[in-house]
Amino acid sequence: MNLVIIGTGYVGLTTGVGYATLGHQVACVDVDQSKVVSLDMGKVPFFEPGLQAALKDAQEAGKILFTTDLASVIGGADVIMIAVGTPSKGTGEADLSYVETAAEQIGAMLDHEAIIVMKSTVPVGTNRKVLKVIRDSMSLVGRKDLTSLINIISLPEFLREGSALSDFLKPDRIVIGSEDEIAAQTISRMHEKIEAPRVFTGLESAELIKYAANAFLATKISFINEIANLADRVGGDVRDVAEGIGLDRRIGPHFLQAGIGYGGSCFPKDVSALEQIAGNNGYGFKLLSSVIEVNNQQRTLFFNRIKKQLGPLKGRRVAVWGLAFKPNTDDIRESAAIDIAQRLLAHGAEVCAYDPEAIENAKRVLPDSVEFAPTAIDAATGAEALVVLTEWSEFLNVSFDTLKARMIGTQIFDGRNCLVNENLERLGFIYHGVGVCR
Ligand SMILES: NC(=O)c1ccc[n+]([C@@H]2O[C@H](COP(=O)([O-])OP(=O)(O)OC[C@H]3O[C@@H](n4cnc5c(N)ncnc54)[C@H](O)[C@@H]3O)[C@@H](O)[C@H]2O)c1
Description:
The chain has helices spanning 10-21, 33-40, 51-60, 70-74, 97-109, 126-140, 164-169, 181-190, 203-234, 238-246, 267-280, 286-310, 336-346, 359-365, 376-380, 400-406, 421-426; strands at 2-6, 25-29, 64-67, 79-82, 114-118, 150-154, 174-178, 198-201, 317-321, 350-354, 371-372, 385-388, 411-414, 430-432. By secondary structure, it is an alpha/beta fold. The protein has two domains: 2-201, Rossmann fold (3-Layer(aba) Sandwich), CATH 3.40.50; 202-438, NAD(P)-binding Rossmann-like Domain (Rossmann fold, 3-Layer(aba) Sandwich), CATH 3.40.50.720. The strands form two sheets. It has an eight-stranded mixed beta sheet with strand order 3-2-1-4-5-6-7-8, with helices on both faces. A six-stranded parallel beta sheet has the order 11-10-9-12-13-14. The structure holds nicotinamide-adenine-dinucleotide. Residues 6-12, 29-32, 35, 83-86, 98, 101-102, 105, 119-121, 157, 159, 161, 265-266 line the site of nicotinamide-adenine-dinucleotide (NAD). Nicotinamide-adenine-dinucleotide (NAD) is lined by residues 6-12, 29-32, 35, 83-86, 98, 101-102, 105, 119-121, 157, 159, 161, 265-266.
């Protein structure tokens, strides 16, 4: 099939490359000229394991192209996907301006039967509105007769940055929200090479599924963080508790790692958006409000602990390991790590940071006073304390003997509970985890 994907970010690019890998003909459109130029040369403008190689294969097979010019590619499209950003407004509500612009552009240019697919995460009711915007725009340019041939499908994306391409190719399920049976079946067939259960729903249910999935996972994280905070007060080790409950198949082991809380481009904005959707419809979603509050509190509790242990931070050299919002990505959007680094700086600490992939992005948001080191050990050299904020696996393989020799101080604050505290304590470090008994 001929696919046009509008928006070539983490989702648009991954899905574009994914569909090209499945054999579809894909045109990716983005307003960001530099991104398009870079992609055209086969260079993925962000870090995502496996994506660069898959893009190269797709380009060599002639299955994918990149352009800023929607009009030049919309003509032959069977399916037009919207994968633009839906960031949070200050109020927590999703900003739909990019989606609306994309819809208006489609409506102004579309002159044949096509299925519109919504990949962006959008509030309940948006797909219906977008279809209306497209049909109205078509009518305005004299194509009213074609409007009944245009349908919309809500096809929420569940990929995780860091394993995005494999998540696309091997999803747990494909949710297809539609009001048109034929369009839904066409979109299902578009994925025929993917073995995964199909969940056929109406538009509103599909929209809700995406938010509910993220909100549930965020709830698990805040729940285990509350248990960790309790363990800090009553004794016990949250890692053992997580294992003990996670082996219960009704609970499952995922998203039970206590720490400084969730971040990233999805969870914070999607949880807030769902809370807003509920509020706008006269329902106070109390559980979600608490999930958000607990998540915000985790960073403060962790930072307060650093302050309490180290005393005044002014002029103190602190090493930071990890800036990305999670490992295997260079994405720092809503990163708890960036937030903690900023708090350290605001209290006068001298921060030397290392992240395997996110340094370039971090440089754009952190002040010039931050030093960036080429390795984890270099970042910690001469530091009074080490603060671990992203659980990159390479941190586990550092030589902790060397670390001990290079650091001035002995305090390690592990905001992700990812280091093995017994080993560190044997070497003479003082380890502080989140809900980890000492
Ligand atoms: N990042 C994730 O892990 C993830 C996972 C699932 C769902 N989502 C959802 O997918 C959507 C996209 O997320 P993302 O992280 O890829 O965003 P992103 O910000 O990385 O990318 C969006 C892209 O859209 C482009 N764009 C905006 N308006 C455009 C227009 N009119 N025409 C062409 N291009 C346009 C931007 O230039 C940008 O490159 C969001 O709704 C997000 O919530 C994201």
